[in-house]
Specification:
The protein is of the alpha+beta class and 134 residues long. It has two domains: 38 residues, no CATH class; 81 residues, no CATH class. Helices cover 31% and strands 31% of the residues. The chain contains four helices and seven strands, in the order ββααββαββαβ. The chain has a three-stranded mixed β-sheet with strand order 5-6-7. The longest helix is centred in the middle third of the chain and has 19 residues.
Length: 134
């Protein structure tokens, strides 16, 4: 969420969420998503497994977290290898890929955005943007 929250837990269950009055961003108020947080985490319809639908598939299947993580890593590595540009036509060094891009959300904190920027820069991506800056 983009708002500061105080989350109260009893018996390993979220029982109440309030705005944090010490938050310099939201000064004790909850954003719409923050106000719905308790319902989100306690909903009996909340999906707790990784779901995947294969290309042209019609059904969702459950995957282990490890299998899903491996699939993502394999695709990132393959895309980077297929779209890597070591240099331009004049021989100038580029070391980049235009096959990977990232658009971040405004609900991430500064540290998370910093790490994401470092990761995608290290991968050679040049299209790295954030909703908060737009």
């Amino acid at each position: 969420m983009g708002c500061g929250q105080k989350v109260y837990v009893k018996d390993e269950r979220v029982v109440q969420i309030e705005g944090d009055p010490d938050s310099p961003v939201s000064r004790g108020r909850l954003c719409p998503k923050g106000a719905a947080s308790e319902q989100l985490v306690n909903s009996p319809a909340r999906e707790l497994r990784v779901k995947y639908r294969r290309p042209f598939g019609t059904e969702w299947e459950s995957l282990s977290l490890q299998e899903a993580t491996d699939m993502i890593a394999d695709r990132v590595i393959a895309t980077r290898a297929e779209t890597w540009e070591p240099e331009n036509e004049r021989g100038q060094t580029l070391r980049r890929t235009r096959g990977i891009a990232f658009l971040g959300g405004a609900t991430l904190d500064t540290e998370e955005n910093y790490l994401i920027k470092k990761l995608f820069t290290a991968l050679g991506a040049i299209q790295i943007e954030n909703q908060a800056r737009i």
